[in-house]
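assembly run, all chains below
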Amino acid sequence: MIRNNQIADLFDEIADLLDLQQENPFRIRAYRNAARLLRGLQREVADMLAKGEALDELPGIGADLAGKIRDVVETGGTELLYRLRRELPHGLVELLRVPGLGPKRAKQLHDELHIASLAGLRAAAHAGKLTKIRGLGPKMQATILAATEAPPQEKRILRWRAKPVVDSLLAHLKAAPGVQQVAVAGSYRRARETVGDLDFVATAKDGAAVVAHFIAHEDVAKVLAQGATKASVQLRDGLQVDLRVVDEESYGAAMVYFTGSKAHNIAIRRLALQAKLKINEYGVFKGSKRLAGKTEDSVYKALGLPFIVPELREDRGEIAAARRLPDLVERRDLKGDLHSHTKASDGQSSLEEMVAAAQAAGLRYLAVTDHSQRLTVAHGLDRKRLERQRAQIDKLNARLKDFRVLKGIEVDILEDGKLDLPDAVLGELDLVVAAIHSHFNLAPEKQTTRLLRAMERPYFTILAHPTSRLIGEREGCRFDMDRIIKAAAARGCFLELNAQPERLDLTDIHCQAARAAGVLVSIGSDAHRPADLDFLAYGIGQARRGWLSAEDVLNTRPLSRLLPLLKRTMG
DNA sequence: GCCGTTTTCGGCCCGACTGTTTTCAGTCG
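ok done. output:
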């Protein structure tokens, strides 16, 4: 079965090739929009087709694109793509990755110098042939040469990894001469799980002075562009950072504009056009009159919308639903954590240390869920060791005030869907968190059956890190998430949003689906040491992107309301 | 290629910066 992401890759390739042919830009955009839609879709289109569902109901997909999607699902490709690949060498697409080279210049290089790959470009640059191209001066040639020697890797980094950089740059910018306001925008502000670059917005009377201060930051390796109101730099670690300086009257408009997402911006711009207004990074205008722009609130208001929080700005229905958006969950709503480890398995800290950390983090309960016996690498617990831990927890609970340690386990879901410990053992616990740690690559139908079987066990509370993906490292297991969510709703059990920054599993899209089905999501830190409780903040970010309110999250409930819900799943 | 409370045709987001220009095209976000 071909996945949405693979289809999206092919559509992006079609868009690149059409771009090189200088096709109608709006036709190209249609393919890029379709690719983006596919990447953000909750369900696999292959499944939808198998169930006989119409694809042209999807926004931006008409009869033609629906047909091409069907082609790709059924045959792995589509005639247009094959034709374009025959007409243009595939290597030309590589050239588009070189900074400063767009479709026009890439095509020109191909037509005039017969360059058809990065290797060809490098050879031509070394031979000094590029001077023949009108518009390619010495500077561009140097850029191209550098890019072909060390091809730019457009690697997205985990949002978590970007945090120290963001903090450092914010502090630096706040010290810029004459600067008034400074904020981070872009996908970082939208709490996307990974970021490709960082965007900052500042206000000041003298933009050039702020720009000059910005590029003097100690981590700046290269200045890519520098003007009176904006600059782009590359940091030593390769991360690109953009700064835009506007005056105070435009701060809100600039924040909206640079927070994105691009799709959200296009959607609100369309809305503005319908109202005969113009929106850009300076404000909302009627003719030349500025109606709004100082605050984000004013910008949305001028468009007839209430404020939309950054995490929702993905053009996934937030504009149509703007008047009835959920009040999103916040970190302070969390009353406890239902997934943690101790030294008993692969954690690094004692039970007491973990509990103290949970108390310090403002929580009122913590479920200790060490691994089960099958996971020998993690020193998983067998029946006897689990019994000892239970006794230890009972003793500790007797001493604790206003805090409760819940007895749990992160039990392995075996290949056949059985759980790694007998029901009699699991039934003694407060909750059972179950997860896949092996056989990630079962065929989707088998994987679905495996999970459904596990969920049918009498003591099954939470499906932990449901897909077991590791962002950028390991694709998630393939299974029918739709059926799992439906089964969880029917069974009255829960799905975890694992808050480890490299997991964030469920995804935002799956959270939205769980919410729609009325399945409560448990935001679990999966902490292996006290500091890991900070991961909860990343889980919250993802939950907010998934439209979850406090009510949609299991562990926002105080113990008195939580226990009956857990009990319901425990036989 | 998509889409429709002005429209089934004629729209489709728009401004800053760079490099190489003598007034602007290409790229980028």
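Chain A has a mean pLDDT of 92.

Chain A is about 40% helix and 15% strand.

not gonna interpret more than that til we talk
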